[in-house]
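We were asked to recover a plausible sequence for a given structure. The inputs and outputs are reproduced exactly as logged, with field labels preserved.

PROBLEM: sequence recovery
POSITIONS: 313
GIVEN STRUCTURE:
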């Protein structure tokens, strides 16, 4: 059977997902132990401030503004000793720091908004959303790696935040990115979507799961689909990926060719799994479905996978 979804050369679909618009020049080969201090001394330096899964946005002339000069950041209690250097923007160095003030302590005109709302409600331009994802993932990693995994002593930040070094055994620790496979199992006519108990009412999405050590992306896609739905997959085709700062994942989106259609759901993980026809999926995406079923927002990679299949022939 021909199945053009797996054969057609595609444009790079990752550019259409939220968190993927980061344009920062990371200059990773130029990072030194004092690169954060040097960047903060630059008169054009700007920071973004995060705390507890939220970004601190201030009212600006053109909507919500995520950028602060160092003195503005200090007035919100920014913890400059934990600042990290994201890289060079076209307006100078861009850094990120943990905010000090709690959300309820913020002055008028500054708002603490959780990452998910910023993402799903499109509260920031795509470039800023990508910078936020970079900062959120890095700051989350620093928050949980303050001690050496080898000897247990304290670690210290180096290289603008891209490394921690143990003060005792000198072991170097690097930021991690956890790969997650997210997949749409399909037949020529139907796509498989599931409902997690924590989804909003009516929402169905792709199945997903962490890629395990020693496992290929394709093997993880097949394993997760079989474990969660009892569906065996044949061919697996990569489609797109999305940085996912909850806390530091990379979602790797694939299509899988279903070899059977009788579902055996893993009810410990999912509330429901079912097949949807292409017409049903098109109606759901166009919000003209009367079934009450929805899919994740446009900025989510799941939406992009579902839409690409619905529009394929
Ligand atoms: Zn150590």
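RECOVERED SEQUENCE:
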């Amino acid at each position: 059977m021909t199945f053009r979804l797996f054969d057609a050369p595609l444009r790079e679909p990752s550019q259409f997902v939220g968190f993927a618009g980061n344009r920062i020049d990371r200059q990773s080969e130029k990072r030194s132990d004092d690169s954060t201090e040097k960047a903060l001394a630059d008169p054009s330096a700007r920071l973004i401030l995060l705390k507890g899964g939220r970004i601190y946005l201030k009212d600006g002339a053109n909507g919500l503004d995520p950028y602060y000069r160092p003195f503005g950041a200090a007035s919100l209690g920014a913890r400059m000793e934990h600042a990290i250097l994201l890289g060079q923007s076209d307006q100078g160095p861009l850094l990120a720091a943990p905010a000090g003030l709690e959300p309820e302590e913020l002055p008028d005109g500054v708002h603490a908004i959780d990452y998910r709302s910023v993402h799903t409600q499109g509260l920031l331009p795509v470039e800023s959303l990508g910078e936020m994802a970079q900062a959120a993932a890095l700051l989350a990693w620093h928050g949980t790696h303050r001690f050496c995994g080898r000897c247990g002593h304290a670690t210290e930040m180096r290289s603008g935040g891209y490394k921690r070094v143990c003060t005792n055994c000198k072991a170097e620790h690097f930021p991690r990115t956890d790969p997650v496979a997210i997949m749409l199992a399909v037949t020529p006519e139907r796509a498989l979507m599931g409902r997690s108990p924590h989804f909003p009412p009516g929402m169905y999405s792709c199945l997903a799961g962490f890629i395990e050590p020693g496992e290929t992306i394709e093997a993880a896609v097949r394993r997760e689909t079989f474990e969660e739905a009892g569906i065996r997959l044949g061919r697996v085709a990569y489609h797109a990926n999305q940085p996912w700062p909850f806390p530091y994942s990379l979602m790797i989106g694939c299509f899988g060719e279903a070899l059977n259609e009788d579902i055996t759901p893993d009810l410990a993980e999912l509330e429901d799994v079912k097949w949807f026809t292409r017409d049903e999926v098109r109606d759901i995406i166009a919000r003209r479905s009367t079934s009450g079923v929805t899919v994740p927002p446009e900025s989510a990679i799941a939406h992009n996978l579902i839409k690409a299949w619905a529009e394929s022939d």
